[in-house]
Specification:
It contains five helices and five strands; from the N terminus they run βββββααααα. The protein is α+β, with helices and mostly antiparallel strands and about 120 residues long. The longest helix is centred in the middle third of the chain and has 14 residues.
């Protein structure tokens, strides 16, 4: 199932034949920004140098923030509580894998390598 992506000037919208997910942008002094503590995890490919010194807790939040941007409903209580406290988080889907961009998939894989070391 192919996923299409579009940018409407304020949102990245991921759509396939069954679902749609929107990453909302906020307007600040620096222009449009992807929400969250680690927006770079959805906007560009990360490097090993960037993530190798991060704590396991930060890596876990960074990786799961990617899923949260697409509206993943967390089953883990700690993650659910963390993301529910974020004003941009909108839980909508039990599975968002089909909505992930190639960049997000690559970053998830990289982050997992460092989580498992």
């Amino acid at each position: 199932m192919d996923t299409g992506y579009s940018f409407d000037g304020q949102n990245i919208v991921a759509t396939n034949s069954n679902t749609q997910s929107t990453i909302n942008f906020t307007d600040d002094d620096n222009g449009l920004q992807i929400p969250g503590t680690y927006p770079q995890a959805s906007s560009r490919e990360l490097t090993a140098t960037e993530v190798q010194t991060m704590t396991l807790a930060d890596l876990r939040i960074m990786r799961n923030e990617i899923f949260a941007r697409h509206g993943y409903i967390f089953k883990d209580a700690a993650l659910s509580a963390h993301f529910s406290a974020q004003p941009w988080y909108k839980p909508m889907f039990d599975n968002v894998n089909h909505l992930l961009t190639p960049t997000e998939r690559a970053n998830i894989s990289l982050i997992k390598q460092f989580e498992n070391n």
